[in-house]
Design brief:
By secondary structure, the protein is mainly α. The chain has one domain. 54% of the residues lie in helices and 8% in strands. Helix 2 packs across helix 4.
C-alpha cells in the first residue's frame, strides 16, 4: 500500500520543496530528507528522472550522481521533453530569424 501511495504521490507532482542552495549536494540532501520524511524506504529507490540542467544531471557532482552513489539501483533517465527542447534551441541558435520567433 505504501509503495502504491508513493508512486501516485510523486507521479502527480504534488510535492514541492525549496532549497537554499542550488548545488548537487544541497539538492540531493534535501531530496533524501524529504523522501525519508514521507516514511519511504530509500532501499526501494529504483529510478531518477530530472531535467538536463548540470546541477541535476552532472555525472560527478550532480544530484543524480549523489543519489546513485548511495543507491546504485536508482538509475538516471533524463527528461525527454527537456532534451528535445535543448536540441531545438541549440539547432535554432545559428538561425537568427528563427531565434527571434522562438524567443
Amino acid at each position: 500500500m505504501m509503495d502504491l501511495m508513493a508512486r501516485s504521490l510523486f507521479k502527480k507532482d504534488l510535492y514541492y520543496s525549496v532549497s537554499e542552495e542550488l548545488t548537487g549536494d544541497s539538492i540531493s540532501s534535501l531530496l533524501k530528507e524529504e523522501i525519508k520524511s514521507c516514511r519511504l524506504d530509500l532501499k526501494n529507490f529504483h529510478s531518477q528522472g530530472y531535467d538536463n540542467r548540470p546541477v541535476m544531471a552532472a555525472v560527478l557532482k550532480g544530484v543524480q550522481a549523489q543519489v546513485f552513489a548511495e543507491y546504485p539501483l536508482a538509475l538516471f533517465t533524463p527528461c525527454s521533453c527537456h532534451s528535445l527542447n535543448l536540441v531545438i534551441l541549440d539547432s535554432a541558435k545559428p538561425l537568427a530569424k528563427l531565434n527571434l520567433l522562438w524567443g
